[in-house]
Fold these 2 entries.
Entry 1:
Amino acid sequence: MDVDENGPQLALIRAARTLDEDSSLSLPDKIHKLWLLLTAAKHTRLHGVEESILRWLLKQMSASTDDAEHVRRYPLTWKILAHVFPKIPAQALGRSLAYLRFVSILNKTLGDITKPEPQPTAPETGQGTTTAKKRKRGTDWPSTLAELRASPQCLRTASEVFEALAVLLEQGTAQSGELTPEKRVGAEHVKSLFSSSSDETRDVTARLLLICDSSISLTDGELVSGAQSWIDTLTTIWDLRLRSKEESLEFAKHIYERASLILDKFEVDYTAPSSNPGYGNLREIWVPQLRRFLSMYFIRPARQRFSADKNIDIPKLALGIAQKDVVASTTVMWRIAATTPRDTSDPKSKIEHDAWIENIFQAVVEGLRPLARREKIDALSRLLDIALQTRSIPDTETLRALYRKQALDGAETDWRLLSKILACDADVFLVAEDPEAIFDNISKVSDGDAKTKDQVVSDVILPLQDALHNARDLAGFVSKWFRNLCAAGSVEQSIWFDPRIRAHLATILQTSLSTAQILRLLEGLDPIPSKNGELLVVLDGICGGVTDENTIADIHSKITSLMDRDWGDISAVVVGLRWRVIGYLASWGSSSECNQLWKRVKSDLKPILKKGSLAASETFEAFSCCYKLCLASHIGGKYEEDLTKLVCTMLKRILSSVHAEADLRLFKPYIDLVFNHLPRLSEQPKQEVNSLTDQIVKLLWHIGYNLPSLRNEQRLDYIRPLIHNYDVLDEEPLVDALMTSLLNALDNSENQSGWTQPHSLSLLSTLLEFPVECWTKGRRKRIMGSWKKHKSAISSYAAKDSEYAFAALRLLVKIMEQPTFYEQMDFTDLIDICSSITTSDATLLCLAERFVDTTIRQVLTNMNEATQSYLLGALHYTKSLKPGKHSADCTQILLLKGLVAALSAQRPTDGSLERIGADTDVFKKSLATLVERALSDFSLEANGSAKAPLTDEKLRFVSLVIDAAQATGNDAALQMTIQLSGDTLTRLERAGDIILTRDNAIGWKLRSFLMKQSAHRYTNESFSAILDVSSDSVEEELIHGFVDAYVQGKSQSIRDQLFDELIDRDRLIGGSVGPLLAARRLLRLYQDRPAGERGGLDLAKVHAYFAAHLRLTESLPHFKLMSETMLFLLDKHADEMTQYNIEATLTSVIEVCSAHGPRIQGSRAAGEIFAALFKLVALIIRRHRLRLSGHFHILLATLRALLTVLLADPNPSISNRQAARARHPPWLAARLQPRHAERFARLLTLVCEPSAASVARSRARAGSELDSATDVAKRAAGQHMYLVLEAYVKLQLEVEVSREMRRALEVGVFSVLDITGEGCRKVLNESLDASGRAVFRALFAEYRKFGKWKGV
């Protein structure tokens, strides 16, 4: 048994012949040695040795002794079987396994491993020491029978058994392309192993399910190796059983209970994400497989039997047997039955499906009888949840029985179950024998249980309101609501007082009731006695829902009469609704009606507003009512002055309370009312209105600045409604009052600048909230003058508080973005701004750049004496710089960069610069000198980074310097001349490598700058070497800038040579994307050159190179870039493409869709690759259709390949796994979606419905002059496109195609049928088998019904 390393095949043969003769080794040792020999000689061509090993193992396993059990339990035994199964021809394998009763042995093994024993303790005897030594010589495979009987080792054996079965079942699948008679017969031999004995196959499946169930609890959710395919394996085994009439009965007795237990464990938390990735992955795979297993082999046969004889005994039997977990068995059965779709092609199927759903629901409800009431209620709620999700609603009588016997059966009503019943079918309560019962039960809800009240209102009362609305009986609900309010002892404590009921009534009232119905409803409420304000509750809901002007005019008088009564003895909570209803009447009525209303209520309203507690809801409602009365009298009403004074009085009370109370949440309703609505009253310049405006301004001021407990963002949340109120923005006096107070705060501080007070940040944030339209020229000049006056103090304060600095600079930028020339405006202002900014904050640096650029451009746009002095100041500042003596700083770079950029963009043409002695070159030279000094200093610092590391501040500074070097843009005539020494360039190159590890963008900006400055220092080889080390995250624009810098000024021949070197190295398919981006950029630069300056680059050859390498790409970015480059060449250089290029493109698409396609992985890879292929094929059809004449077969092959990928399932069952591996491309990790099908349908319509431009000059010379080019193209395509239909029909027989996918493809398929003649349809019909013809018949019927145009 020793391994002969020089002849592993010979050693295996000798070992196989002496298996029974060598008694010196135990059976586990023999099996282990045998495994070593098999793995060493795994490339054997003959199968005799493997067959001998198979027979020997099965003989050792067949007995009932401990040794046989030892071999059966040994995991390596099944690993060897999985190894030898594929090496033996299926016919010989099937005969051997049948002769040696493999299924019986399998059944015994499963019986052993499903009965684990406790884990044995480690022995401390000499025998234990011997065992330890034997373990050391081998591997980690357990050797003793006691160890193999423990639960973990049983699970390990089970995993190997599942793997061996999966391999065996693959041998029993006759794959397409391999259907030789021998293989077909062999596959049937393997299948017959499980079909010959139905009882054994049943027991095997049941025990495999038991292992699946045990694995979930034994591993604590950890994923067992290969467990993803376990359900698929046992499903395939059950499918091979010999069919009989008792199959459903056997399933119910032996399979259903365990399958439902497993499925319920996952479905309890199926929607919740799992913290264990392995468990979550297993759940995602097993749940659909188990549902499909139960549906196919239990629910569907049971439904078929029900359709035949209305019998559901089998499901009842399954529920009767599955008593281990009644809730799990009933829930799973109901979910599977409810989600199993009906046959939509059969008109009678809906009636049968409804009857089936009704009977199966009654069966599962009956199955819950053994449970206690609480458990039964919870289970029924789950069942009704499933019914709602699947829209499989039981009959009304069934639900009514549940309501009577379950929801009301007990001391308390189960509101959760009642809400589910109500959601399923409200007719349970609407047409009940006692429809008032549910209202009485709701009224009994205790006020102490707030949670129950909230649940009843949201889940019962509001849905009941909707149900009566849908039943056109909303008036009935209002009447019952009112009666129950009247019957309550305390209105405000009743559940019917909940404001959500009134709010919901308001949303549906106008659409549900006509004016006459509302009037009848109000008349019906009048005679009902109500003493505690019940009528106010109902009227509040009704008034809130009336929006139609005609309805308002008709019911106004009736509501007024209902309100004309004494409300003295009502609680303060309820009486507040009186003022809300009066507010509605005030907003509805005319001026005279409002005057009468004010006379009636002013005696009651004034005391509340003057003395009522602000915490009381009555006071707030009274204030809101007063506002509406005032608005009704505005403008010029009889009592407007009195009402405005009352409003101002209330505002003063609110203001004093806000002064005294730091917590604004108590006054939030009042503040919202003031800021949202009261500005409408400030339109007239009267004394009272001015007083109102003053109060609003004071309230804004106090909230914004005098409450230190509020954070800045909280203050803004309170005052934003006022600042952004359209009524405020339309009234300039009010805007002026608000902004003047804020601007005064900046100017008129007692001792020091208002810019630097503790509340200054809030002040600036408030000013930033005002829209641009509010910033008039005067206000802009005032605030800029104020800033100039205090700028030194502002700069000092900003240096201590970055948030304040950000707000102040934002405000200055916002002001200067509009033309603003304030007093004593000078260039020193920009110097002060930039001096206070450091590069430590990127946001502040960006704002400073914007401020400088905006200011200088405005100066250049409006040239006059003042602006000339401004530029003269800039000139003096520039000449005062001494870059050679001092290091360049951020301020100098910012200012000169802004000056040079602005002058390059809009140089004055009136000679104003020359008159003051300022020349653009002066600024350019100074900036160039600053850039040179800054880069020189940076290069020294960067190369000494061990002592002075590169901070983020230094990186931002060098980025600013590089941007300044390119401030003049790409115009060569305006560019600056920057001279750097060779040592400086070398140091900067080394610094660039360091910067790339910190900031990719800045590193590539530096490289592009250095390349532009000293392109002569680089060769094509060094240029390519830099590109090779670029990361995949680099932005395309950075690579493009680097390429542009290198090729700038070079001839086209040198560019072509560089391009050839890039593609000749075969570095475009993997590694860095830099070379590929550079090659694409060179092609675009080639296109931009005039035709006379283009070199001899052969674009057809270039395209051929990309087409040949498309399938070899190693990553998704490489694939997308290469396909986009091919698309660019085919589109922009169509005239240079040859026939070979067109065919090479289509061929490359076919290769990408084959099993030899690119091995690209990723969640988004499949969709993006398919989209790229679609674009290539679509462009060929649109732009190069003429070249498809005579070559249509290549296009057909391409369409078939795309269609195969579109419909393919990359995760098939075991029976189709081997075929899937041979047909699907490696990048197809998940099924494509209907949106991809829509793209493929677009390809079909492009072929079948060509545009006139795509087929121009395609008319055959012998054709009729009366035929258009499009008609000729359609007839030509009609001779071939039926082959795509044939592929589509056959693929539907191989894989499951969803309804959404078929619907997305309909447009294209119908387009093909439009151009397919009767003769081609006959050929298509003859090429299909019976199943294919059935699919095509249904497809053609759909086409004739929906897709075929019949004309007029």
Entry 2:
Amino acid sequence: MASLNKLAIRGIRSFDDKNISVIEFFSPVTVIVGHNGSGKTTIIECLKYATTGDQPPNTRGGAFVHDPNMANEKEVKAQVKLRFHAANGTRMLAVRNLSVTKKKGGLTMKTLEGILSIADAEKTGKRGTISTKCAEMDAEMPHLLGVSKSVLENVIFCHQEESYWPLAEASVLKKKFDDIFEATRYTKALDSIKSLRKERVADQKAEKERLESLSKEKAHADKLSKRLAELSSSIAAKKAEYEETKKEYDDVTIANQKFHDQSTRFREIYMKQEQLIERRKDIVAELETMKAELKEVPDSDELIDSRLKNFDSELAASNQKRREKQTLLSEEEDSLSQLRSEHVKLVERQADLQAGHNRHQENIKQREVAIRTMGSKYGIKGYDHSPLEVEQVAEFCTRLSDIQKKQNQDTESLQSDGSSKTAEYQAKLQTLNLEAGGLRMQKDTVRAQIVDLQKLVMKDEADLDAAQTLAGDLQRLASDMEDKQARLEKMQADFSTANYNVRLEEKVKRIGELEVQRNSLNGEFRTLSSQADTRAKFDLKRAEVKSKAQDIKNILQIHNTKFRSLVGVDPKPETLERDIEQAIAEKDNEYRETEDRYHSANRNLQTLETTVSNIQKQLIQKQKELKDAEKKVKAELDGGDSVAEAVKEALAEVSVRKETSSSVAGTSKVYESMLKQGKTKKLCLACNRHLSDHEMIVYEKFLNDQIQKASKSSIEGGIDELEEWENELARLQELLPIDATRERLKNVEIPALETQKSDQEALIPDAAANTEKIAEELAAIRRQQKELGMLKQHAINVSQIQKDITVLQKDIASLERDLVATGSTRTADDVEQEIDGIQDQIRTLDREKLNLANERDRSLAGQRNVETELLKHEVEQSELRNKLKDRDMTESRISINRVQLATLNSQAKDLDAQIAASNAPIVALEEELRQFKFDINIKIKEAQSHAQELNRSVDQMEQINKTIMDYERQRRGRKLQECSQHVEDVQAQIAAASLELENIREAIRLVDRDINLGGAVQANLRENARFRKLKRDIVKIDKDIGELDIEEAARAKRNFETKWSQAQQRATDLMNAYSALGGEITSMEKQLSDMKDDQNEYKGITKRYTDQLVKVKMADMANADLEKYAKALDNAIMKYHSLKMEEVNDTMRHLWNKTYQGTDIDGIKIASDSEGGTAKRTYNYRVVMTKDQVEMDMRGRCSAGQKMLASIIIRLALSDSFGQNCGILALDEPTNALDTENIDALAASLVDIINERKNHANFQLIIITHDENFLRKLGQSDVMEYYWRVSRDSRQKSVIERERFG
């Protein structure tokens, strides 16, 4: 059993933070006495803090620690050290440390690390530390003391402010008792077990359904595997056939392409021959045209090419020269732009410097005006002229500074004189005040003596008045003593007559007889318990049969409609499973037939879609080829549509230009000859007519125009155009095969493919609709299969329930036979009812016995009370006689004090006159001092005003001088001149740059003129080169025409027209064949993929089925175990709660009847009301009092004394029941609000408890009280030899001292 040894306190509340106070706890009782506020409760608070780590209520912010302000320290460190014996007998030491620091915002408290160690110094001299962390200490201390933390807080070390918690409101009381009973921990465990079992039962139901589902899935997976193997072999055969057909189609396609390419070459030969002939005609025509206008050059081809090449280099040199001039022009323009920008900045700089110069001149004028103004104001003469020199300005500033210094000195002199004069006045006043203060102190002393004597006289007079009734009080007291003596004798006689002991023995004897009878019935009850089990099993099984029959009925009602729609008949429990299995087999057959139809329709649809897809690919390819051909033709024709028309147009253009060139080349010489002869002969050679001078002019002009048209430059331009048109004609002739391919694709192949695609697409909607319809039928059958699967599960449940009912009916028949064989007429319930009746009689006799004992105790207590009152009256009688003797001494003391009062009043009047006389010189001197301060302050203010004006003037002058000096020091005037000169220089540079810019521009214009004149010579050279090239082209064309094989082209044309259509038809047939095979393979592969996906869903189904079977069986066993655990724990909680409540209430009843001296309450107890039923049971608690077998809530109905006594008794009872391992209990001010009789009874009860348990080595009762009478009662019972007294020393610190009783 745990016990306390010593407690050391330092720095807690009023205990000193420099010294340690130690208290040792005795066994069986430790009493601590002290007046209110001495620090007694602090000891209980320290015990609670050391054991639980919890500080007292309302001590946040450091109120639990000694105040640093009282200790004159910034930081106070506190310590609580407890040495105790643990429940296992080990001596332990617990140390807890705190600190409080004083800061600006208030006090800051910190919890420091503590120590929990084993104190075995007596054996080894060492200590083994268990922990230094506060949280670990808080958890470990209750284990060491053998009780829970709630018992330590609410029972053993309950704080005085919380001592009434048993009568608190219901929610607080419930929490306290739940913590003490530790019911929450066990109820939570019970709830967890029940919740876990409920969840597992729900999960188990799902797991069983999953097991059944896995069984069906396993069967379905086996069927899928077989069908997969068959379908895979079919797909392999189809793929081989598809590859063979596809290869044959590719070979035919390649052969057709080669045949087409070879056969179409004849068209190219015909077209090439036509193109060459047309091109030769065009070139010949173009040559004829060029001859008429060309000015032929006799140079060779190489020389003409050389001249053309050199012309480009000369032109490039001119261009280079122009670029160089242009670059120079850009540079000059940039330079001019920079000069103009610099000019703008310089102009802005010049304006800024000129403004500064103007401000400087204005500052000089302001300075001279200020000097003349200040000179006239302060009497400084000689500065009225203008302008002033720099030396004159400096001289003026010096003289002004001298005047300022003199004025400041005068002001300081006035202030110094005023301070010294004021100090003299103050010294005189202090002397006079000291003299008057001495007189006033004498007067106050006399007045205090007068007041003290008046109080003594009044007290003595009051005592004298009170003593007037002493004689009558003495007589009344004697009469009361006689009455109480008579009452005591009567009570003793009534006690003898009541014969309590005999009546109690009779009750005890009757209780013993009833207990014997109860034991006999208990034996009979045990013999009938087995039969009771049989009857209970019988009732349980019948109820179970009824429940299962209802379950079957509910299942059939819920699924009746669905069963009738799927099976066709009403469900019957006997044939339910067989009917559903038959319906499932029929649906499986129907599903397989529909699935085959679906796959066939899907294959047909896939074949159509594949054929359309292949045709679409071919169509896209052909359209792409057509698009490329059209794109190429359009790009070459520049927007035209017909290649043949473009070729025809180009041939025409070539012919026209050839004719023009030929005519121009011949007429040029004719016109020159006609002009030469006309000028010589004055005759027109065309009409052989003489020409006048005027007609000659017209004639010359006409011929010159014609010669100009047939000039070399015009001929060269025509040759270039002819060469361009010949190139255009060759390019267009190369487009003729592409145009033929375009026409074939556009008019033959693409329309045929589009027609074939339309025919195939027209068949797809019907095939898709048919496939979708069959798919819907298949989905409907699948839904019905799933519904039948669900119904099968319910049918299995119904069959299982039916089997369970059969087994239960057999068990019921067996139990009926067993019950009939016993032949007993009494049941266990009858015997148990009779036992309850006897138990009620025993409880009634116990109450009667207890009431007799209580009545006897009350009678004895009444006798003791009367004896105590007689004793008090005897003491009071002795005190009254002593007071009569003191009355005469009081009268003589009053007369002496009155004479002293008269003398002191006379002295007080004399002192008042002296004080009045000493006040007159003080008042006069204070008035003189006030007037002096007034005058000197006026003079000082005037002097300070003059000084401030001078300071402002000096500051003004210094500011103006500083501005002027800054301007001159920075030489801003010289900078203005330099800036103006720089502006003029930049303007001259801008003019020169502008002139240079115009010269460069003129040079560029001359270079441009030379470049433009070189184009005519270059054109004539180009026309001669082109003319010679056309002649070479005619020779080459004649050679190409001779090399063409026209007869072979004719034979190839006839062969192509005969075989091409047959080859195309063969390729189309092969394409349709392999497309159909591809559609079938795609459909079958999709079917195979779907079946593999279905098979993947059943992957590992055998292992999952086995695992699920084991899991279900194990879960059934675990759920049964959880149900057993829950019932056992629930019964244990109920039994523990009832036993403990009964134990606590018995202790409370005993202590209340023994302690309480009133007659209004027979007893008290704790009522626990159960709520929530068996599923979730909770308890609500309330303290009730009984009177005449009627229970009433004590809260709100009892006095303060009854409340205190009930709280103490409840704590004593709880300590007795829940603190078996800890014999410690602390009572803080247990006599609070109790009257004298109940205090005495409480003391007697505590003495009895101490005497009962003093043989227990570790029993310790700690009592804290300020009641000396209560202490005396305890001391007279020989239960203690020493007690502790707590008091305050001279420094108001709490100290603990041990004193011996008596």
